[in-house]
Amino acid sequence: MLGLTIREVSAALREGRVSPTELCRKCLNRIRKTKHLNAYITVTEESAIKQAREAETRLLQGKPIGLLDGIPFAVKDNFCTKNVKTTCASRMLEGYVPPYNATVVQKLLDQGAVLVGKTNMDEFAMGAGSTDGAFGPVRNPWSYAAPYRESTGAVPESDWVITGGSSGGSAAAVASLTSFLSLGSDTGGSTRNPGALCGVVALKPTYGLLSRHGLIPLMNSMDVPGIVTRSASDAAIVLDVLQGLDPRDSTTIPAPPSTAQLPEDFDVRNICVGIPKEYHAPGLSQETAAQWRRVADLFEQAGARVEQVSLPHTQYSIVCYHVLCSADVASNMARFDGLQYGHHSAVDSSTEAMYATTRHEGFNDVVRGRILTGNYFLLKQNYERYFVKAQKVRRLIANDFRQVFSSGVDLLLAPTTLADAARHADFTREDNRTRSVQEDVFTQPANMAGLPAVSVPVALSMRGLPIGLQLVGPALQDQKLLSVAHWMEQRLGFPSFEERGGAAGESEEERGGQMRGSGDAR
After folding, report:
1. Range with the lowest mean pLDDT among 41-50, 151-160, 224-233?
2. Cα 243 to Cα 326: distance, rounded to the nearest angstrom
3. How far is it, in rounded angstroms, from Cα 141 to Cα 3?
4. Residue of 299, 332, 281, 265 lying closest to 126 (CA atoms)
5. CB under 8 Å to 351, separation ≥6 — which residues?
6. Domain presence at residue 426
7. Nearest Cα residue to 200 out of 521, 495, 490
8. Has residue 342 been placed in a domain?
């Protein structure tokens, strides 16, 4: 039951083959069973059961709200959730309980979806591996599917592999069958990167298509709520619910006509697929490159036009991103001063000492480093030299995409990551900034240009770990990208996590039991 698509489990709920309460308990039991993945910071058992019972009442009356009624979902812990802790995986917000829901969270709840928990992440979404949060690293479920069985948790520490970041908890939650969908955030690839490494579909919508209200910001001009599901058709259902104008977010735009149902037989003979030559980057693994060629050949054999294109300013994208991101971080993190909410230092010798100690205790080295860097770039003598120049180059990067798409290319096909998931021990040898440069090289340019992109799992590596490719399209072509992604899924036959031995059967005790410590997984 937990491995079904949203449409399939919705049908099961309406036909009475499973009740919302039963389904919710299965997910909660599964969260308990996979606790060693550290995918969740907070588990909302009590409220989830209550929401499931309300959905059950509606279904028994024959009045379901929609396809998501009674469907369990998870949310990255940088989205505000009313009466549920929102920590951003930071000691700074460890006890913060928002008085409101983020718009995208509220839209899911309004559709009857059941919130089962808040997922782990890199602190304040600054990272590429979900290894830098205050509550420990997230472990990739595929570490436990091959060569070991997930049910035992008996994987040597040396064999743990990363989930990617910063939405690693959200991707792990969907991949390990604890939720049917999850929300992440994508500023430079933070949804697609973990989607590729965890073998799930991860959509970064067009900037402005989904509201950012209630998403604790990293970089205001690039942050986008991301959608993580196990299929492109599931992503289309969620996108149809979440998109559209929000009076609380002035950056939102009207949603184009769309449908939650993707075409079963999309005709690719009428599209042109571009292969960006600049994405043949140093460090690209042979396996990923081989899958890139294989899928490009698949498009060509099906009648699509495949041609090489150029995005000449790609090489400057990461540098510009770190200048602009650090500047936004310096501004956005200024609100965490220990006075209004969040961590407050016991040091009270002076206001300055209180500020300094609060921020030192509340932020990790990565966040403090970006704050210092951002303030340096924003100094009066540096502003034109760094920040303004980076904004100008950002425009050139966006123009590269615009010129390619105006030349007749419908979408771009590129790798999502350089390789499959790195071992945790190897990944953490590098500093956070270096790791981000390496991991976001393919994903970050789409954020600079505000374009939609979706990562699709295409194959398993020789190590038995997922490899993902991404599709990037013109603004507001999110539905078309998902249609093409669905076409790819139908022909590639990527094995599900449970097919690889990751979803061991539940015991009688697990089927009937309940989790302890309602409201907090810790």
Report:
1. 151-160
2. 28
3. 14
4. 332
5. none
6. no
7. 495
8. no
Reading the block at residue 22, the tokens are 């039963």
Q: Using alpha carbons, select from 234, 222, 241, 201 the residue that is nearest to residue 125.
A: 222
Q: What is the CATH number of the domain that holds 29?
A: 3.90.1300.10
What is the distance between the alpha carbons of residues 43 and 517, in angstroms, rounded to a whole number? 9
pTM: 0.93
Contacts of 309 (CB under 8 A, 6+ apart): 274, 275, 276, 277, 404, 407, 409, 412
Q: Are 216 and 122 in contact (CB under 8 A)?
A: no
Least confident of 55-64, 138-147, 251-260, 302-311: 138-147
Q: What is the pLDDT of residues 54-87, one digit of tens each?
A: 999 999 999 999 999 999 999 999 999 999 999 9
Lookup result for tokens 């015991």:
507
pLDDT tens, residue by residue, 20-38: 999 999 999 999 999 999 9
In this structure, of 265-269, 309-313, 379-383, 399-403, the range with the lowest mean pLDDT score is 265-269
Q: Which domain holds residue 111?
A: 6-270+454-512
Place of tokens 């396996």: 287
- DSSP strand pairing (201-204 vs 453-460): antiparallel
pLDDT tens-place string over residues 215-234: 999 999 999 999 999 999 99
% of the chain surpassing 70 pLDDT: 92
Q: Which two tokens stand for residue 74?
A: 């998870």
Strand order in the sheet with 181-186: 40-43, 114-119, 72-76, 181-186, 224-229, 201-204, 453-460, 466-472, 411-415, 272-276, 305-309
Give helix then strand counts, H and E, for the chain: 17, 11
Q: Tally the C-alpha atoms within 13 A of residue 257's C-alpha that lie toward its C-beta.
A: 0
Whether residue 496 is preceded by a cis peptide bond, meaning omega within 30 degrees of 0, is no
- Residues that are catalytic: 76, 166, 190
| Rounded average pLDDT over 160-189 | 96
The 3-class secondary structure across 314-352, one letter per residue, is HHHHHHHHHHHHHHHHHHHHHHCCCCCCCCCCCCCCCHH
Structure tokens at 411: 């979408």
For residue 124, give both structure tokens. 């304040």
- 290 within some domain: no
Cis-peptide, bond into residue 276, ω within 30° of zero: no
Contact by Cβ (8 Å): 485, 508: no
The total of structural domains in the chain comes to 1
What residues have CB less than 8 Å from 157, skipping those under 6 apart? Answer: 424, 425
Q: Is residue 372 part of a domain?
A: no
**Calpha distance 352→364 (Å, rounded):** 19
Q: How confident is the model at residue 6 (pLDDT cuts 50, 70, 90)?
A: very high
